[in-house]
Amino acid sequence: MPGSDSLPMVFTAALTDPGRKRALNEDAVTQLVTPYGGIFIVADGMGGHRTGEVASQMAVSQILEILRHKEPSPQGLLEAYEAANEAIYLAGQKPESRGMGTTCTTLWLDLPYALIAHVGDSRAYLLRDGELMQLTQDHSWVADRVRQGLLSEEEARNHRWRNVITNALGSFSSARVDLVGLKVRPGDVFLLCSDGLSGVLEDRVLAEMILTNPPEPAVVKLVKLANDWGGPDNISAVVVTIGSQVAENPRPYALPLEASEGRPVRLQSGSDPEVLTTQIVEPERKVTFWQRWGSLILLLLWFGLLGFVLFNQFGTGSTP
Fold first, then answer.
1. How far is CA 40 from each of CA 93, 108, 115, 175, rounded to the nearest angstrom?
2. pLDDT by residue (tens digit) across 268-310?
3. Which of 254, 211, 237 shows the shortest CA–CA distance to 110?
4. What is the DSSP letter of 187?
5. Do 51 and 97 form a contact (C-beta atoms < 8 A)?
6. Cis-peptide into 112, omega within 30 deg
7. Beta strands per DSSP E along 4-130
8. How would you classify the pairing of strands 189-193 and 276-280?
9. Is the pTM of this model over 0.85?
10. H helices present in 177-288, as ranges
11. Rounded Cα distance, 288 and 149, in Å
């Protein structure tokens, strides 16, 4: 969906599919191109029966409705998430809706800046200069173990608890939201997706599809590939490509220097909600076998050597 001559050049497409194994599609997606960029959202509901479907639709519709009437800012994005969380949490207090919740990842393009809010294990990626970077950190049991070095990426992908979410909209009375900000560059491509896509296709496949295809055929091919690989879950993808020109407009909110230079940074509100502290987003490093087990192996070898020395010194003496 290209912008008109009066709009920033933003090309986007969105697609959601139930997959091969689920009767219902509990994912929800939306996209809205605006004069300043656009709003793009992916949500993946949970809770069983129809409550997951309701939760994801509530998140997408409420966040979109709030943001479309706000001036873009990190604080405005947080407020939209807090409002959606409260609505879903209250709806989930009904006996028939116990346990309802949803992941939610939002890209708020305020060119030349991008603001991303994230809860759960739906993801936001950035493809820049041919390299794919995961901008969000999964809020899941296996992702926590990968960051701790207790599981490898491959083990996490196939773990029986890979779908256990540690943070979702509606699960608690207050929302815990991750924020990321950066300055976009011409040619940047953003991918938002649910785990029905990222949990099936490797990053190199995601990168290839969005690098070699415009947004609309890219989302179609991504969904098809995920279904070809079994389609074990609902599948959603939103691809947003920045055109060849990006306006240099001043913004009332000030992103940190690193973000204004184009480096993605995690934003965190302190006691003053208008003051943001930052941490640079680095590519998540895969943990090698030696990194995971090297210290334990060295410790065992040390004890083995100590035992060998003690045995030779005290255990082999002749009996008088």
1. 28, 7, 11, 20
2. 644 343 444 445 555 454 444 444 455 566 667 766 776 666 6
3. 254
4. T
5. yes
6. yes
7. 10-17, 27-34, 37-46, 101-110, 113-119, 123-128
8. unpaired
9. no
10. 195-198, 203-212, 215-228, 257-260
11. 9
